[in-house]
Amino acid sequence: EQINKGKYEHYMQKEIHEQPESLTTSMRGRLIRGGSSKKKSVLLGGLKDHLKTIRRSRRIVFIGCGTSYNAALAARPILEELSDIPVMMEIASDLLDRQAPVYRDDTIIFVSQSGETADTLNALEYARENGALCVGITNTVGSAIARNTHCGVHINAGSEIGVASTKAYTSQIVVLAMVALAIGADTVSTKQRREGIIESLLNLPGKIREVLKLDEQMKDLARSLISEQSLVMFGRGYNYATALEGALKVKEVALMHSEGILAGEMKHGLLALVDENLPIVVITTRDQCFSKQQSVIQQLKAKRSTDSYVYRRRCSNLPLQLLAYHLTVLRGYNVDQPRNLAKSVTTE
Ligand code: AGP
Questions:
Q1: For an engineered disulfide with 72, which of 16, 62, 103, 131 has Cβ 3.0 to 4.6 Å away?
Q2: What is the pLDDT of residues 60-118, one digit of tens each?
Q3: Is 175 exposed, middle or buried (0-12, 13-18, 19+ CB in 10 A)?
Q4: Residue 65 in contact with ligand 1 by CB distance below 6 A
Q5: More confident position, 283 or 324
Q6: Strand positions, DSSP E, the chain
Q7: pLDDT of residue 126
Q8: How many contiguous H segments (helices) and E segments (strands) does the chain have?
Q9: Does this complex have an ipTM over 0.85?
């Protein structure tokens, strides 16, 4: 496996730009656009013997930390929609702190790039003790989470060296979307919708190539933010996770305070901080939340006169990865090895 930086200056930069390829690898052999019948289907070998049990689950629970948690959050709406099973979100350490109830008829999906994160592993041990079906979604064949779950899917994103997770995030979301498609595969009423999602997933690498052309634009935006103290990101619906993940990237590599906010919560507190000086990114895509986000923009505009908005139809996380990358380089920080952080957190 190629682990040099090639033509790039940093691993994070390389990993952002190789997402069209890493996503293609994540989907290879798993999404099938069938011959003359044009039938579209999903095949996940690691799950196929467990799908019946998963479909009968009382709940599906996602467990992860950091970016892996955000990827699960991004995939939740599609899993709820296609499985028609309640989907809960748990940060691994919080589940353990609360010793939250876990049932024998729960399916618990553990999401971890490294497959070695201590908090996630401890939550896995706890879920196994409580008799739940444990599914692992990792990027590391033979990792502890891959070994100790009952079944699972590798995301096949290739080695990720930068401490800030980028290509693993998008591969996790795509793999979790495929898991949702596999769980919902028997439902006649969603057939058309599923075929539409498969088509969109297959077209995603091409779309990402387009979005990566925003590199210079994001560098310009980073330049305008270089001396700021703080950056707020608003998202909702599918893009709530985008806001959390965008803010996490800015915090961990650019060493700038950043907060991802559910736009529906804006009026319940954060609005008090909004003035002429607070930099804000509003993430809007053409989805069911579009008009609500437009009204958020209007409310923000009423409080200030100057604004910069990032707008893309799809792939909304990629521009924010580019923004965090450029902001870090311009601020002169170590982009691949941020202070105080490790790629894999193997202590509690
Ligand atoms: C991601 O940019 C972070 N470095 C961090 O939040 C990471 O996602 C988290 O520690 C979980 O790691 P894992 O995916 O290997 O379990």
A1: 62
A2: 999 999 999 999 999 999 999 999 999 999 999 999 999 999 999 999 999 999 999 99
A3: buried
A4: yes
A5: 324
A6: 31-33, 40-42, 59-64, 87-91, 106-112, 133-138, 151-154, 230-235, 257-262, 280-282
A7: 98
A8: 13, 10
A9: yes
Strand order in the sheet with 280-282: 257-262, 230-235, 280-282
Question: Residue 149 pLDDT more than 90?
Answer: yes
Would you say the CB of residue 122 lies under 6 angstroms from ligand 1? no
Percent of the chain whose predicted confidence (pLDDT) is above 70? 95
* Location of structure tokens 């993940």: 245
Q: Which atom of ligand 1 is nearest to the CA of 67?
A: 8
Q: Which residues contact 158 (CB under 8 A, 6 or more apart)?
A: 1, 18, 22, 25, 167
The residue assigned the tokens 């958020």 is 296
Q: Which helix (H) or strand (E) holds 43?
A: none
Q: What is the pLDDT of residue 36?
A: 59
Name residue, tokens 């790629």. 343
DSSP string, 68-93: HHHHHHHHHHHHHHHH-S-EEEEEHH
Number of the ligand 1 atom closest to the C-alpha atom of 166: 2
Q: How does strand 40-42 pair with strand 31-33? A: antiparallel
Instruction: Give the pLDDT mean for 178-189.
Output: 96
Report the pLDDT value the prediction gives residue 1, as an integer from 0 to 100: 45
Q: For a ligand 1 pocket test, name from 11, 12, 65 the mutation site with the most ligand atoms within 8 angstroms of its C-beta.
A: 65
Residue nearest to atom 6 of ligand 1 (CA): 66
Q: Which atom of ligand 1 is nearest to the CA of 120?
A: 16
Least confident stretch, 170-174, 214-218, 338-342: 338-342
Chain centre distance of CA 11: 19
